[in-house]
Amino acid sequence: MKDKKEVVIDEDIDIGKLFSGSLKILCCKYDSLFVGSHDNVDDIYFFDKRNRYFFTFTDAFTSIYSSTEFMSKEEREGCDGDFAFMSPILRAIYVCKDHRGMGLQEEIVESINEVSEEAAEPYLAVADVFKLSGSRWERNAKIAWHSFMKDGYERDMQWKERTVKQCKRFEGYGLQRFVLPEYSLTETWQHYIYVPDSCSKGVKLTVKTVQRKNKIVGY
User: Fold this and answer.
1) What is residue 78's DSSP assignment?
2) What distance in Å separates the CA atoms of residue 76 and residue 84, rounded to the nearest whole number?
3) What number is the average pLDDT over the span 145-149?
4) N or C terminus of the chain with fewer C-beta within 10 Å?
């Protein structure tokens, strides 16, 4: 990928390689690029068909297990299904500068939430505001993605303030605070989960027990 013109959407992507049902549905709604080996997909990048933004997920490799010591006997007896699940992680959202302040991030997350409900699958998310390294003004999402992959990204001087605002936006979109397992590059106050109404009682109880065990206070 030496040139921005090489950012081409592959129409023949095999979504059968994905573990997450939600991500399979998102692949049908958005243009997408897979990053990984020939046989395994690690990250999936989704592009707005109008080229205004992109967002990225890691496939459902992350296992969430219940903390049974924080589960009452009555709760356990009243639940169906296993007290564990695997979840994809929403890692980044990037809206091009010309299109900011128009409610597009809310549009993105609401779209993801709808798919989560359809698939009956929770997803994890990390609030971590960034800027593209060496970037000035990207005309479209594919140019921005090229910069993201080639030049990287970084935190700016207002990172904490802006990330706290992002946390509050996530909460406004229906996400709940939740400590991700084995995610050492961020703080626990940056971690979130969306739990669809359509998922099983066992999954919902699993989330509650982890939240009871790992209470998050402040930002």
Assistant:
1) T
2) 13
3) 90
4) N
